[in-house]
Specification:
179 residues; alpha+beta; six-stranded antiparallel β-sheet; 6 helices
């Protein structure tokens, strides 16, 4: 991806533009296997949280960070304000430019990315998902479409009163209180 494309002002898609893109993405929906839920893959799926009293995203757009037999740790893009989402995607693209051009999976290490995520304020957007509650079907986003899907407005928070930006601010505030 050319540097000039990475440096231009990128805007979030409107709900109607996002709806059209989601319809297009869902044509690629398929049964996911364990090999799809590997660190570095971005997935768009459905999630049925165990604790319904908490606000959660029913259709997370998740960058898989780590996975074990019972849980998946992921960075849910829907909890990240657009400008931060775009900056993160730009960083991932820079780190994987050659692999993306060759249509190869992202080279990804949560251990290496973790300090950056924490220092830049992404920690509140990291979510722990129970594997058995993640839908068996979803869309695996190809690396060359990262910027496109980062612009989508597709979140479906169970508490519809708040935007992603508001939920991010609330999660940051709650995180500071726990320290």
């Amino acid at each position: 991806m050319a540097r000039s494309k990475l440096n231009k002002k990128i805007k979030e898609l409107t709900p109607s533009q996002s709806f059209a893109k989601v319809k297009e993405l869902l044509k690629e929906k398929r049964k996911m296997s364990k090999k799809d839920l590997v660190p570095g893959n971005l997935i768009f799926t459905f999630y049925n949280a165990k604790d319904k009293t908490q606000t959660y995203d029913r259709t997370p757009l998740v960058l898989v960070l780590r996975r074990n037999s019972t849980h998946t740790l992921g960075l849910n893009f829907h909890w990240i304000p657009l400008s931060m989402r775009i900056n993160l995607i730009k960083q991932i693209i820079r780190m994987n430019e050659k692999r993306i051009k060759r249509n190869q999976p992202l080279e990804f290490s949560y251990k290496q990315l973790r300090p950056m995520l924490k220092s830049l304020g992404y920690a509140p957007c990291i979510r722990l998902y129970i594997n058995s509650r993640i839908s068996k079907t979803g869309v695996i986003i190809p690396p060359d479409r990262l910027m496109e899907v980062a612009r989508l407005k597709t979140e479906t928070f169970t508490n519809g009163r708040y935007s992603a930006t508001q939920l991010y601010a609330m999660a940051r505030k709650a995180g500071r209180k726990r320290k």
